[in-house]
Each structure stands twice: as structure tokens, then as C-alpha cells.
Design goal:
homodimer, mainly alpha, Arc Repressor Mutant, subunit A, Tetracycline Repressor, domain 2, 2 domains, 70% helix, DNA-binding
Chain lengths: 203, 203
Amino acid sequence: MNMSPRGQEQNQQMRTKAIAKITGAALEVFAEYGYYGATMKHIMQVSGLSKGLVYHYFPSKEKIFFHLVESALEISKNAWTEALNISGTAWQKIEKLSEILFKISFTNESSLYFLIMVQATTQGKGIPGLMEYMTEGGAHFDLLPPLIRTAQKAGDAVPGDPVILSTTYLALFQGYTLCLFQDKDIVKKITPATFTDVLRNRG
Amino acid sequence: MNMSPRGQEQNQQMRTKAIAKITGAALEVFAEYGYYGATMKHIMQVSGLSKGLVYHYFPSKEKIFFHLVESALEISKNAWTEALNISGTAWQKIEKLSEILFKISFTNESSLYFLIMVQATTQGKGIPGLMEYMTEGGAHFDLLPPLIRTAQKAGDAVPGDPVILSTTYLALFQGYTLCLFQDKDIVKKITPATFTDVLRNRG
DNA sequence: GTCTATACACTGATAGAC
DNA sequence: GTCTATCAGTGTATAGAC
């Protein structure tokens, strides 16, 4: 057998690959069955790795789930940062936000992370610290109400309580995310405007 | 011929009471932890009844959950029937629908049934027959698009694909239902108009 | 004695963890 | 692979009204 030590670089590569396999499998399984419905066995089967290897990289089922929630919040935060940092009016930023959130929520593989967020929301009560963690990690949502307020002054956004409008906008994304669980065809027909429209001033 | 030792009405009363205790406890537990996260033990503790008694009235955990989903769909269907049967314009029916759905979703104890619907949606894939059952039981949702079309012709509803608008309206209710899992204060500030507004023609 | 609501120790399977 | 806890579900016994 080959006893020669692997280079540090090679080791790192193997680690990264294994972790990617585990998180990828966990993402699928947790998204479909939820935290309690998902089993480590199922994650091991989907990833094609052994029990020992999975537990080598993650100490527990709970930590794997936390890791996915962390990634989901990061994806969300990055999307918001990208949208809100463009130069332009408040309304243009809102339109950009809809465009980016629409893309990552409904058109590519990252949509699974938004299913994870929903699963975390609906089952997080039994997992210590999770709800608090999500509240902290979702602090960027607070950027929307002032943006709406600015757009209202410019006459672009519909009148009304900016906090409620902001929640409505976010609830709409979450509501459509639930449609993904039912494989509804309707999701294929929506556009960023579907979301922007609830904030648009048509008066 | 009634051979029962206790009076029939007495027995019936005991049964009804026990079943109510079981379903009430199951409603709380399933709503909070989801199907897989809820345990029979937990349901027994909350109901204050023994294992034997619970299994005397329900053959399995799955059947209890199905029973709750069934009740939820019935509550939903009754609400729609009540709203859509009033005399008035299409728009008035939509306003009535918002009013009733808002009431049962966010202001009284039946709101737990809507959490059950969300739990069933997010975890139903692993429960044989559940998704199909929910699709069938939610057939009354198909009544909304034609109603929107009528309201559009009258100039009351916003222009756009009635099917997408209908889905948007329902997704908004579901999205706000998710807020209930997080005990968000914002839910106390919304009104039926929050939902009606996404369909309202303000042009 | 008979029926029925109720109780609870028990089983086999499977979970997470190491 | 192996351990332990816990899961859903069952078999059997008891209490009390007729």
C-alpha cells in the first residue's frame, strides 16, 4: 500500500470534496423531509459516504442543519448587499432586489436553501438557539422599510406603513417558496415583477 | 339493539370528550414540531391521556395527522363557501373572502389548522397519499381566478393573469402564516386589506 | 357476567452517535 | 460495527356501569 504522506494541498482537496458531498446531500434531504424527517442514514446514502466519514466532518445532525441555515442566510445577505449597493433610486434598488431574489429563489440550485429556511422556520422551535440565530442572520431585512419610505416620497412606491409593506413583500417570497414543495407549475410563470408589483405605486 | 352497559349517550359523551382532547393536543404538537418532529408520547402528555386510550381512538400517528389535515381543509372550504355565497359584486366577494380568511388564519384558535397545512406542505412528501389528498381538498381555490376575471372587467381588480394573481393572493396568506411560527408582532398589525390590496385596482 | 373506557408494560425497529 | 435511547405500535389487564 502507499504509505507516502499526501501533500497538504491534496488533503485539503479531499476534505473540501467530502464536505461538499455531505452538505449537498443534506441540503436535498433536509429540504424535502425537514429537520426531524431527515435521517443521517438517508444523508449518508444520498452522499454515498459512510457513517464514520460523515461523523468525522460533522459532530451531529444538528450541526449539519445549522451549517445549511448559515449558508442560506449568507446567500440571502449577499443578494441583498448586491441589490442595494447599485447606484440608482430607491425604486431601482427594489427592482434589482426583486430580480436577484427571484433568480436565486426560483431559477437555480440555490432554491433549495430557501426551502431549508422554511423548514427551519416551521420546525426550529425544538432546536435550541436556531430561531435566535435566524433572527440575527436576517437583520438585513431591516434595510427594506427605509428604502420603501424613500421610494414613497419619490412617488414610486405605494402609500402605506413601510414595515407592513416590507413584510408583505417578504411574505410573498416565502409563500411562493411553499409552492416549490408542491411542484406547482405556476412558479414557472412568475417574474420579478410579480413581487415588485405589491410595492409599486399605480395610483 | 343496544347492549352497552353505560347509557349510549353517556358513552358517546366520553368518546367525544376523549377525541377532542386527543385532536386538540395533536393540533398543538403537530403545528409546533411538524409531522416527524411530533411524537405520540408528546401528544399523550399534552392531552393527559394514556397511550392505550389514544390508540383506542386512532389507529396510528399518520391517521391523527390526516384527520387534522382533513379538518383544516374543511375549515378552509367552509370559509370560501361563506364568502363566495354572499350577494354582491365579484369584488365584494373578494373583500369578504379576505375578511373571513384573515379572521380564521390570524385571530382565533383555528389559526393552528393553517400551521398544520403548512407542515403538511413542507413534510408531506414522505406521507403516502397526503399531497394528493391536499390537492383534491383544495379544489375550491380554483374558484378565485374566474372571480378575479369578473372583478377585472368591472375595473375593480388590477389587470394581469388571473391565475397568477390568485396564486399571489394565496401565497401571501401562506407567507404571513409562516410569521406565526416566529411569533412576529407584525401579524397583529395587518388587516384584511393587506391581502385585498394585492388584487385592488389603483390605476 | 358482560361491555367498554382506560392504563401501562412490553415489543421490534430504528434513530443518532461514536 | 456497536451501543443506547427512543420511536410507533400492541397485548393484556383493570375499573366500573349495567
